[in-house]
Design brief:
Blueprint: E1 2-8, H1 14-31, E2 37-44, H2 46-57, E3 65-69, H3 83-87, E4 90-91, E5 96-105, H4 106-116, H5 120-135, H6 143-159
Parallel strand pairs: 1-2, 2-5
Antiparallel strand pairs: 3-5, 4-5
Length: about 170
């Protein structure tokens, strides 16, 4: 179970948020997390995400998603195998283990959906899953890590019937 604490700085289609909710639930399920989890998600504009990106990463540019995990996992480990670490992040108010914060730029999301030729729903779900994978200890710096993370992202998205490309109309 996952509790998503939405901060809607920019409004989006409720169907996109519903898809993102389903993708988030699938992510913690696929990871094998048995504890209730919580994530703060800010849907924002390019200006805000660029400010955050510069402040915390030293990059003066907007981006699609930023992840700020609350847990520092041991090398090679992810949330599903680190229940004691997750328990340290238990939030009494949310009654869940806090995984961290996600910031998603809605304008960036919409541009990427158009650029990649798929729906805003697919792009929103992908950004949610990508960010959650980071919060659960995945990364894509080294090729082996990237392959592992991409495989997890695809498994999660497939489980909620979100595909990379629209179905062909034959």
């Amino acid at each position: 179970m996952i509790y998503l604490d939405w901060d809607l700085q920019v409004q989006t289609d409720p169907d996109i948020r519903a898809g993102m909710n389903a993708a988030a639930e699938a992510a913690v399920c696929r990871e094998g997390i048995r504890l209730p989890c919580a994530v703060h998600i800010c849907l924002c504009d390019d200006h805000l995400i660029a400010e955050i990106n510069e402040k915390y990463r030293g990059i003066a540019a907007s981006t699609d998603v930023l992840s700020f995990p609350s847990v520092s996992y041991p090398a090679g480990k992810t949330a599903g195998s680190c229940e004691p670490l997750l328990r340290l992040e238990f939030d009494d108010e949310a009654r869940a283990c806090f995984l961290g914060d996600l910031f998603i730029s809605v304008p960036h999301m919409l541009r990427q959906a158009e650029e990649y030729g798929h729906s805003a729903l697919r792009e929103g779900c992908y950004l949610m899953v990508h960010g959650l994978c980071h919060l659960m200890g995945y990364d894509h710096i080294q090729e082996e890590e990237r392959n592992r993370m991409r495989a997890m992202e695809e498994q999660i998205l497939s489980s909620v019937n979100i595909t990379r490309f629209p179905a062909s109309k034959e």
